[in-house]
Design a protein that fits this description.
Helix content is 26%, strand content 15%. With 244 residues, the protein is of the alpha/beta class. Helix 1 crosses helix 5.
Amino acid sequence: MASENVETELLSADADGIARAGALLAGGSLVSFPTETVYGLGANATDDTAVARIFDAKGRPHFNPLIVHVPSVAAARAIAEFDDVAERLASAFWPGPLTLVLPLKLGSVSPLVSAGLDTVAVRVPAHPLAVSVLEAAGGVPVAAPSANPSGRISPTEAAHVMDGLAGRIEAVMDGGGACGVGLESTIVASRQTPPPSCAPPAVCLLRRWRPAWVARCRFTPARMWWPPPANLRHTTPPPTRPCA
């Protein structure tokens, strides 16, 4: 299915809307839904055609891997290999705005998701609506980058998504307001010690938002550094600045 000239539904955050979003995702359609960071553009991560449509809808280069969203740590373990560091980070910051880059379990997701790499980026969101949508999708992992055309500011409200992607995706879940954090998740490759972040530090906000999470993890946000990848300029903070 082409990503242009699609009738985009605006779904309500009720049982019917959640069920509809889950059915669309499971069936290979593109659905945008809110997380605590920004709105994501979701597709069944095991479906090559659905994943390819994410790149088409966003105008995103195919060498740029996607983050996979799952409703639980158990679901994350089904697609990625966890070492001790990863387990500790997941325990400290999940559910929440932390993405872990971990060794991929081969065959668990479409190779388009990882851009042919042997790692996969995965997170468990904290937004209850996001979790409900993921569960309604029937247990499939959901690839979900930010729901905006590539190069534009990441959306924090349903209206932003409609402005950028209406006619290219099947549905947008209206969360009823702005995303709480408003920044992309911090991305950490846990095989490095201490693990540096390579994307904007939403985790920094945890000191105020969920300080108990920070206390449970030895790798505090103060030891996670920016600078983000060069191809993510729409999310770029000042370079080489520590997360304070």
